[in-house]
Amino acid sequence: MTEKPQIVNNIHAATLIGAGLSSYFLNKSRPKTALIPPAVGGSLLLLSNGLKKGNKSVAHVAVLETAALLVQTTRMFLQAAMPNEETEAKLGKQTLQRRSLVFGLMSITGLAAVSIYVAGFIEKRRKSY
Fold first, then answer.
1. Closest Cα partner for 45 from 65, 71, 19?
2. How many domains does the chain have?
3. Which of 3, 60, 61, 87 is 20 to 30 A distant from 12 in Cα terms?
């Protein structure tokens, strides 16, 4: 899989787009922040061809975007999975469960993507020595 990072990139991008849009449309207030993951997912899809060709600059941008969003989605997942009393009272159990699922899914695919990217970098470096 490390020789084809565009595959995990596309899976992660599709997850971001689907999860972000579902969050946007399932929330009656239509939060603009729910559109951040689909925007990043679209950007990652645009980078996919460069990843396939082995472009180092494109690969670094993909890693940076994925890692930055991974930090945020993981933080949001933890807030939903382990809410304080105030958050639980404000959002409700059903909303917290939905948020846990959405942010957890984005975090898992983001972690997988970053892992594949980094493993590929290490593999290429070993081959060059």
1. 65
2. 1
3. 87
CB atoms within 10 A of CB 83: 18
Closest to 99 (Cα-Cα) out of 14, 19, 37: 19
**% helix, strand, coil for the chain, step of 5:** 90, 0, 10
3-state secondary structure 76-122: HHHHHHCCCHHHHHHHCHHHHHHHHHHHHHHHHHHHHHHHHHHHHHH
d(CA 28, CA 96): 15
DSSP one-letter code for 35: G
Q: State which residues form the domain around 82.
A: 5-128
In tens, the pLDDT along 49-95 reads 999 998 999 999 999 999 999 999 999 999 999 999 999 999 899 99
pLDDT band at 37 (very low <50, low <70, confident <90, very high): very high
> Can you read off the two tokens belonging to residue 62?
């993909």
For residue 28 the two structure tokens come to 């009656």
Handedness of CA 21, 12, 71, 101 (dihedral sign): positive
